[in-house]
Amino acid sequence: MTAKHLGYNKKISLVFIIVTALLISGIVVYTGMFGAETTSKETALVKNQNELSDEVTSVEASIDTNEGTEQETTEVIEPIAKPVIVQPKPTMQESPLPFNQLVLAQIKTYNKGSYPYLLNNDYANYNGVTSNLYYQEKLLLKAHPNGTRASHCVGITFEVFFNAMKEWNQQQGYAGDTIKDLSYEQFYDFILKWYVAGPKTENNLVIALEKYQLGKRLTNFEEARPGDFIDFSRENQTGHTVVLIDWVRVNGKIVGLRYWSSQESTNGIGYKTEYFNILRSDGTKYGTIMKDKIHIGRVVPL
């Protein structure tokens, strides 16, 4: 019994050793496989992160920082920027001319209130001025009867001229409201020319000033000053009468003007800038004012 028992125990031990060895071997294999899989995933993740980091670095490095660094080979395509158009600015200094100063002072009196634009052919009741104007105690021009103080370009520019002339007469000590000894009929003819009552070649503010010796024509734009009066025509066959505030220049070249008048685009009395139909360097036009159809008049009441 003892011998059999010992033999049996030896068999059991041998089996136990074999089983144990197999178990240990399996654990080692499984652990190795798990570790290899984990390492593979971590390595791939790190690799991907490094590759992503390399991509970001290469793109950032390719942007020119203007510091003299050499660019990487990765190309960055930047959007083409649209050209920035810088609006020209007026350059003229304030006019020292005595009468022009009165004109500029007059236009400042219209800063308060509303002065809408209105153009019609109801000449019997409305003549484009903001208030009734009298000359030699007679009604000369009529404001709109609805009391809105509406105006149009020839009306408001004449009104400014007329009020500046009255101020001039007072400063010079002249009695009454007569201008340059002109009769009512003569002065009314002056108005018709200012209002362009006929072909502009025969009727404009410059012709009115010259005919009645109240001013002169300027043909050199560089001689013009703020407070001068201008009549111009556009390519679309429209015209305008304004008070010059300033020329607009590009690289020293006059390309337009800033002015004060009454116009629909500003809902009445106001400042505006327009440009001549001269060409830019790219072949396009600055604006529509015909530069050869500009009449500049300066009032010289002496």
From TrEMBL:
Keywords tagged on the record: Membrane, Transmembrane, Transmembrane helix
Question: Where are the bilayer-spanning segments?
Answer: 12-33
What this protein is called in its record is Peptidase C39-like domain-containing protein
Q: Which organism is it from?
A: Desulfosporosinus nitroreducens
